[in-house]
Design a protein that fits this description.
Belongs to the nitrite and sulfite reductase 4Fe-4S domain family. One of its GO terms (molecular function) is sulfite reductase (ferredoxin) activity. One of its GO terms (cellular component) is sulfite reductase complex (NADPH). Its EC number is 1.8.1.2. It catalyses: hydrogen sulfide + 3 NADP(+) + 3 H2O = sulfite + 3 NADPH + 4 H(+). The protein is an alpha/beta fold. Helix content is about 35%, strand content about 15%. It has 52 helices and 48 strands. The strands form nine sheets. The protein has a seven-stranded mixed beta sheet with strand order 3-2-4-5-7-6-12, with helices on both faces. The two termini are about 45 Å apart. Bound molecules: iron/sulfur cluster. Iron/sulfur cluster binds next to loops.
Length: about 1550
């Protein structure tokens, strides 16, 4: 524990440290969650050093720091922990005290300590303290750095000792400039706190939580008598204490409020106390406790403290009684007074213990010589004639027998070193007058401006909703409680509350009525100079309440009034805002407009007024369970719906942007109160959008935050009031709907909701399912003989699962009773009853368990009672010893298997066979280790030598699936009809790829759904076939409709120049396919082991030439299409399986090109038009380089073969490769040449190993010449020699360009191809608006951007206007960002190991400052990222690339060629953001300094010796910068 050596520099630091040491929970009140308070920085430092609390039950526990915004009702957070027996303290400024007065009354009876830094900082106002003096707390104050530490400690000791609340207040600037002090020694702190009392409190949580009774703790000291200062014995007799109390309270009322009990105030403590025997504390008790604490402190540290501190001569006749912060200034001035000064020889007395007020002690502290007392009160907002301190002093001193003759009150303002003397002179001159003037003001009234505590700030994130209001209603939107509204004289804390806003709205509505009345009068008899205003106003009156019409007319009225120039016109113009129907909004938000207790909602509902309320809820889903019960939100939506008269919507902008628009629009139109609940979960104001997004998705997906709209007006139109816009709802809402009969209506309308609705949120369904499944299986096994063998697996990729299943089959063949199931499906409590258990598990991420083994592992690991003495077991693990190459990361290799092996042994289980480890690096991969392990297992089970074992069926491969599929039919059609699951079978999932769709599941919610016992959130990705990426404007709108109505409201423009939709659920899959077909596109062969979408450079600069080349891409694509009719049969027939919707192609069940097994692997073709290599022509199975003839027209293509990107981490047999040149082909022959290359691959590609099946491996195996010969043989023609060409880049050129025909083209920057709307950027809407008027076409680029093509000059202005309106013309990005590209990865891609599309933009933002610093903003560096080594964004050709290795970790590659001509090479493995930034910053600054003229980053990294060049894919793994450490040592 930091002790004597730590130095303390400020009072806040001293106080924060003591609060930290003496509490279980510290509630840190902060300006906002993102900005620290003067206390919280120190609290966080202590917590980050893991300093233990001295009062915690466990010796190493650190206290919990709860950060609460100052305007979020902070003291509410104290109740739950203090009632559960945890010591709580609060660090805050004084600004929260008055608004918290109701809590203060209740909390006074608990040993809570509130440390208050008085505000404003340089001239604190003590009104905050005097106003709460009667709330029943003990008040202590300190005036210096040293005192702040000692009195803070006293406050905690006193709270613990007395069981009552203590407020310690101080002026934070009082320690300014003082020398630092030593931190209190931990032993001293312990001794003062008295840990026995602490334990007594902690051991007895306080039952019940009545808020209207005095439910606090009673005095702790009465339970344990102990010697007090001076040897006085504390009273241990409760009744004696009570007698004392009642004696005093029976005295005069003035006295009872001042010198009575310090327990709860009279209003609650006597009338409503339910504990008959509750003892109460007298002021004497407090005095005794505090003096005993001070006596001990004095003994230990030598400093003395008293309830009243006297400073000055004991012979003084005149004295100041100061209640303010300038103690040192005044006492020094008096001490240094000259004899002529009016204040010479005066004294100074200050109250250290302010409440309870001990009048008798004041008299004791005053020397007998004192005749006159000047009471200086530093209170700026006095509400009574006499200051509260003056009354305290008067009643105490006057009634005492003594020599004080005169007591005069002063109001103390701001004084400084320069003004203190004249101020004191005035005080004393007046004091010694015969008739002194009362209430004189001393010092300046106004201190120099300083922040008055905490300022309100609207968090940036929360503006996403208010921006939508702006967007929807424009100038009609009026937020009554917005922070920038002008409310003279009202503090922003108050004017930002919805309650205040509501009042001002009502006033505004009254004004509008008045305005209408005035208009009515003016329209008939007003005195205008012209006639026009009258007519205009009369017209306006007739439509005044219609938002749309009044908007249209308003401008006209304004112009008529402006021209008129009469006085009446001018008056109306001053109020012209009333001419438009305003959309009136109140905002309730956690951060800037705290709707205390939802009273704003209540007011709005009860009023029935046409007012809209937007309530932003920012509690993250993952925190909701941990949230303090008292702070948990009530369900406002339910509350409002129960009211019956209101429009209610529950929305989440990060889940459905269009639903928010719809809800706000409906709320605006609804004639009555509307409540729009808006979800925006975040932990701090600067939260990354990714966290907000994933938290939102979890909450919506699991029904915690359902999306719905409730419109009571619908009933009149015969429609249901309730519309559910998400899939699941929570139990409470379901009950409400049940009651309201809405659910029945909803289910009738949409029966598929039945399953989701019937399954209550948070039930124990899953546990029951597990038990049932296992019992059923056990029953099945009964009757079989042989030893039981339970095989459990944890598997992400499927290998462990197949091994387990095969082991099960082999076990059964050996006569064993085998059960095979996933780890997480197994009830852990049964483990002890098993005889033989085998576990096969793979390794995920950084040595983690696979998803379906995670909860099993946690249950086993955390178990305290598993006894496995009678269990025999063996574990086999699958891992990769080189996955984490650094020495310190070796522990991750097969970690789950090793951990399980150790833990089961610890629980007493016996090993059947030693732990087996499968390593991907072994010659046969994991099979090597497995084939050693399995025989040992049979040996141990006594079934090693069994005769007549049947032959095992070979494993089912993709090739088998293709053959059995009947030309890609499988049972897809049947699967689509099965409503019991959102999934399709595994083999159909393989087949649907050939139809252009992949089954995926939302990985953001995978774990959460699993925990709820739900299947993954399955949905489908659909990829269109769009050769060359050319789409009409009409098709764009059709694609946009599909995304909105059937997908997840976004589209992805892919690296293969096509549209991709995500989040299409099974029942919408067929409608989506049909909609795509109606748009004259299809999805056939967009994925699968066939030729994929054929790419073509979009070439906006030469449209005529582009047309010629593009025609080849369409021709090749059509020529190589599969012929199966399954596609039409499955997707394009109606539900009666009859009508073929759009036929088109001739159909036959015969594949002339592909045959029944199609290709061994996917096959990709791209066409580049030099000098642009934007398609990355070398990255494809076939690369075609267009060659222009001397007449400017296309003559043919140079053809390369065997390029490809996909690899597997650490598998050196896999590598990326660039295409090798075969030669030149004339344009009319090119589709045939492509076909022949494809056929050679069909027949010679490796069908045994999918990891070695791409054309690149075939070409390398056969050699380029041999391969070429095979193609030529099939083709019957020879390739000509390749023609010369030149490439200069592989990135896009943004902005406007004019082609050779005079048509215009604009390349938009679409970051990573994602077309979506956000509150800040309505890109998707903007592009749709553009498509509505665009007469040309759109071209999708291979870098995932978009070109608006073929715009005539005359159409430019309208398009440019829309582009500017939607900010689509913005190209002010760094060249690094413009040259970047990322694949989709999380949340939809099943192969993703790390984020990509959602993370690369964030990473680039973090690099941009460094880019600027080094003057590289305009320098294009090709940077790419993918979530896995499959390489969808072609990372291996980038100058710098990051490829996902595990969540948050990437392999880094350097040295790619700028125009895609050279592969890069591994530079670092598994690095995380910190390292990435550090490395990149170093490289960028070196590159800026060292590069030669025109030298590209990738070339420089090679010249500078940072990385070796990869000259061929086959040396991709050689000479990497970071060799495996083990190999280096070998
Ligand atoms: S590169 Fe990997 S993670 Fe990225 S989209 Fe392709 S398969 Fe998914």
């Amino acid at each position: 524990m930091a002790g004597a050596n730590t130095r303390i520099a400020t009072p806040e630091q001293a106080v924060a440290r003591i609060a930290y040491l003496a509490s279980d929970v510290v509630v840190s009140v902060q300006p906002s969650l993102a900005s620290d308070s003067e206390f919280s920085t120190h609290l966080k430092q202590l917590a980050s050093r893991k300093e233990p609390s001295l009062v915690a039950n466990a010796s190493d526990s650190i206290p919990e720091i709860q950060s609460v915004r100052h305007n979020a009702d902070p003291l509410l957070s104290v109740f739950t922990p203090i009632r559960s027996g945890r010591l709580v303290s609060v660090t805050t400024t004084s600004s929260i005290l008055l608004p918290s007065v109701a809590h203060l009354y209740k909390l006074a009876s608990f040993p809570v300590v509130i440390h208050v830094a008085l505000a404003p900082k340089n001239s604190p106002d003590y009104t905050a303290i005097t106003s709460i003096r009667n709330t029943g707390w003990t008040f202590l104050q300190s005036w210096s750095l040293q005192e702040s530490q000692d009195i803070a400690l006293t406050a905690h000791a006193l709270a613990i000792h007395s069981g009552k609340g203590v407020i310690h207040f101080f002026d934070p600037s009082s320690g300014a400039g003082a020398e630092s002090i030593e931190a209190a020694d931990a032993d001293v702190v312990r001794a003062i706190l008295n840990l026995d009392n602490v334990r007594r409190f902690q051991s007895g949580p306080i039952s019940g939580s009545e808020i209207y009774v005095n439910d606090g703790r009673v005095v702790l000291a009465s339970e344990q008598p102990e010697p007090l200062a001076g040897g006085v014995q504390a009273s241990s007799n409760a009744s004696e204490v009570e007698v004392e109390a009642s004696t005093i309270t029976s005295q005069s009322s003035v006295k009872s409020s001042q010198e009575s009990v310090t327990s709860s105030p009279p209003s609650v403590s006597t009338a409503t106390t339910i504990e008959a025997n509750a003892s109460v504390l007298t002021s004497d008790n407090i005095y005794k406790y505090v003096t005993s604490i001070w006596a001990k402190l004095s003994e230990l540290v030598g400093r003395q403290y008293n309830p009243f501190e006297w400073i000055g001569s004991t012979k003084a006749e005149n004295t100041v009684f100061l209640f303010g912060s300038d103690v040192a200034l005044i006492s020094n001035t008096i001490a240094n007074a000259k004899s002529a000064d009016a204040f010479a020889d005066a004294g100074l007395i200050v109250p250290r213990l302010y409440r309870p007020w001990l009048g008798a002690k004041l008299i004791e502290a005053l020397p007998k010589s004192v005749k006159r007392v000047a009471v200086l009160e530093q209170v700026s907002r006095r509400t009574t004639k006499w200051g509260p301190i003056l009354i305290d002093v008067l009643t105490s001193v006057k009634s005492a027998v003594g020599g004080v003759e005169t007591i005069v009150g002063y109001q103390l303002g701001y004084i400084t070193k320069d003004t203190v003397k004249p101020a004191l002179s005035t005080v004393f001159q007046n004091l010694t007058l015969e008739k002194p003037v009362q209430n004189l003001e001393i010092g300046e009234r106004e201190a120099p401006q300083e922040a008055s505590g905490y300022d309100l700030v609207k968090p940036k994130l929360e503006s996403s909703y208010t921006k939508i209001l702006d967007q929807l209603f424009g100038s009609r939107a009026f937020i009554a409680n917005s922070l920038d509204s002008d409310n003279a004289g009202i503090s922003s804390t108050i004017s930002a509350t919805p309650e205040y806003g509501f009042g001002s709205l009502l006033a505004r509505k009254e004004k509008k009525q008045k305005f209408i009345a005035e208009v009515q009068e003016a329209a008939s008899s007003g005195t205008f100079l012209t006639e026009a205003p009258k007519r205009a106003l009369a017209k306006w009156l007739s439509i005044a309440n219609d938002a749309k019409k009044s908007e249209e007319v308003a401008e006209d009225v304004v112009s008529k009034l402006s021209l008129d120039n009469s006085r009446l016109s001018k008056t109306f113009l001053q109020n012209k805002a009333f001419l438009r129907k305003q959309s009136l909004w109140l905002v309730g938000s956690d951060a800037w407009a705290y709707d205390l207790g939802n009273s704003g909602v209540h007011h709005v509902l009860a009023s029935g007024e046409n007012v809209n309320m937007l309530i932003i809820d920012s509690t993250p889903y993952s925190e909701r369970a941990a949230a303090d019960a008292n702070r948990r939100k009530k369900d406002i939506g339910l509350y409002a719906m129960n009211f019956g008269n209101a429009y209610v919507a529950s929305t989440a902008v990060y889940s459905s942007y269009t639903q928010v628009l719809q809800a706000m629009d409906e709320a605006d139109k609804f004639n009555g109160p509307s409540i729009v609940l808006a979800y925006l979960p975040y932990f701090g104001e600067h939260e990354s959008p990714l966290t907000v997004l994933t938290e939102t998705k979890r909450a919506v997906d699991l029904g915690y935050w359902p999306l719905y709209r409730w419109n009571p007006e619908n009933e009149n139109k015969g429609k249901p009031n309730f519309s559910l816009d998400s899939e699941r709802i929570k139990k409470e809402l379901k009950e409400f709907l049940d009651r309201d009969n809405q659910l029945t209506q909803l289910m009738r309308k949409d029966p598929h909701f039945g399953a989701a609705l019937a399954q209550d949120f948070g039930t124990e369904v899953r546990a029951q399912q597990k038990r049932k499944a296992k019992d059923a299986y056990n029953q099945l096994l009964e009757g079989l003989f042989g030893a039981p063998l339970t095989i459990l697996f944890g598997s992400d990729g499927g290998n462990a699962q197949s091994l387990a299943k095969r082991l099960g089959t082999r076990g059964r063949a050996r006569g064993l009773k085998t059960t095979v199931m996933a780890l997480d499906e197994y009830p852990v409590e049964d483990l002890a009853t098993e005889e033989n258990v085998v576990i096969i598990t793979s390794t995920a991420g950084q040595g983690e368990f696979p998803v379906n083994g995670m909860s099993f592992w946690h249950a086993v690991k955390d178990s305290t009672e598993l006894d496995l003495a009678s269990v025999r077991y063996s574990i086999f693990g699958l891992g990769d010893s080189h996955y984490w190459p650094r020495k310190e990361d070796k522990v991750y290799y097969n970690k789950p298997a090793k951990d399980l092996d150790r833990v089961l042994a610890n629980f007493g289980a016996t090993r059947l066979a030693d732990l087996g480890l499968g390593d991907d690096q072994d010659p046969d991969g994991y099979q090597t280790g497995y084939s050693e392990w399995e025989p040992k297992l049979w040996e141990a089970l006594g079934v090693a030598n069994v005769d007549g074992l049947p032959d095992e069926p070979p494993p089912i491969t993709n090739e088998d699936i293709k053959i059995a599929s009947n030309f890609l039919r499988g049972t897809i059609a049947e699967d689509l009809l099965d409503e019991s699951t959102g999934a399709i079978s595994a083999s159909n999932a393989q087949l649907t790829k050939f139809h252009g769709t992949y089954m995926q599941d939302d990985r953001d919610v995978r774990d959460e759904r699993k925990a709820q016992g739900l299947e993954p959130a399955y949905s489908f990705m659909i990829r269109c076939r769009l050769p060359g990426g050319v789409s009409t404007a009409k098709q764009w709108i059709q694609m946009d409709d599909i995304a909105n109505e059937l997908g997840n409201e976004t589209m992805k423009l892919t690296t293969r120049q096509t549209f991709q939709f995500h989040g299409i659920i099974k029942k919408k899959l067929k409608p989506a396919m049909q909609a795509i077909n109606r748009a004259l596109m299809d999805t056939l062969a967009a994925c699968g082991d066939v030729n994929r979408n054929v790419m073509c450079s979009p070439l906006p600069s030469q449209s005529v030439y582009h047309r010629e080349v593009y025609a080849s891409s369409v021709k090749i694509s059509e020529h190589l299409l599969p012929s199966t009719s399954a596609y039409h049969e499955i997707w394009l027939t109606d539900d009666n399986n009859k009508k073929t919707q759009v036929g088109g192609n001739a159909v036959q069940d015969f594949e002339p090109l592909y045959g029944p097994t199609y290709l061994p692997r996917k096959f990709k073709i791209s066409i580049a038009i030099p000098p642009h290599n934007d398609v990355d022509v070398y990255a494809h199975d076939i690369g075609l380089i267009a060659i222009k003839g001397s007449d400017g027209h296309l003559v043919g293509y140079n053809m390369t073969v065997g390029g490809g990107m996909g690899t597997t981490h650490n598998n050196k047999k896999t590598y990326p490769q660039t295409g090798r040149m075969l030669g030149f082909v004339k344009t009319p022959d090119v589709h045939i040449a492509c076909e022949k290359v494809m056929l050679v691959q069909r027949d010679h590609g490796n069908r045994k190993d999918r990891k070695n099946a791409r054309l690149k491996y075939t070409v390398d195996r056969l050699g380029v010449e041999d391969f070429k010969a095979k193609v030529e043989e099939l083709w019957g023609q020879k390739f000509e020699s390749a023609k010369p060409f030149h490439f200069d880049s592989n990135v896009d050129t943004f902005g406007w360009i004019k082609d050779e025909t005079g048509l215009n083209h604009f390349t938009f920057f679409i970051e990573n191809g994602r077309i979506e709307d956000t509150a800040d950027f309505q890109m998707k809407t903007g592009l749709r608006e553009i498509a509505k008027i665009h007469k040309g076409e759109f071209r999708l680029t291979p870098n995932q951007h978009l070109i608006l093509s073929n715009v005539k000059d005359e159409d430019l202005p309208a398009l440019k206007k829309l582009m500017a309106q939607y900010k689509l013309d913005n190209l002010h990005f760094s060249a690094l960002r413009l040259s970047s590209s990322a694949c989709v990865a999380f949340p939809t891609c099943g192969l993703a190991m790390a984020e990509s599309e959602r993370y690369l933009p964030v990473l680039i933002s973090k690099l941009e400052a460094c880019i600027e610093e080094n003057g590289l903003r305009q320098d294009s560096i090709v940077m790419r990222m993918t979530g896995c080594p499959n390489g969808c964004a072609r990372p291996w050709l980038a100058e710098v690339a990051f490829v996902g290795k595990a969540y948050g970790a990437y392999n880094m590659y350097l040295g790619g060629g700028y125009h895609g001509q050279r592969l890069n090479k591994l530079y670092r493995s598994s690095i995380k953001e910190d390292e990435i930034l550090e490395i990149m910053k170093g490289l960028l600054s070196r590159y800026a300094k060292e590069r030669e003229q025109g030298e590209r980053f990738g070339d420089w990294t090679i010249r500078a010796g940072i990385i070796k060049a990869t000259t061929d894919g086959q040396n991709f793994h050689d000479g990497v910068a970071e060799e495996d450490e083990e190999e280096e040592e070998a």
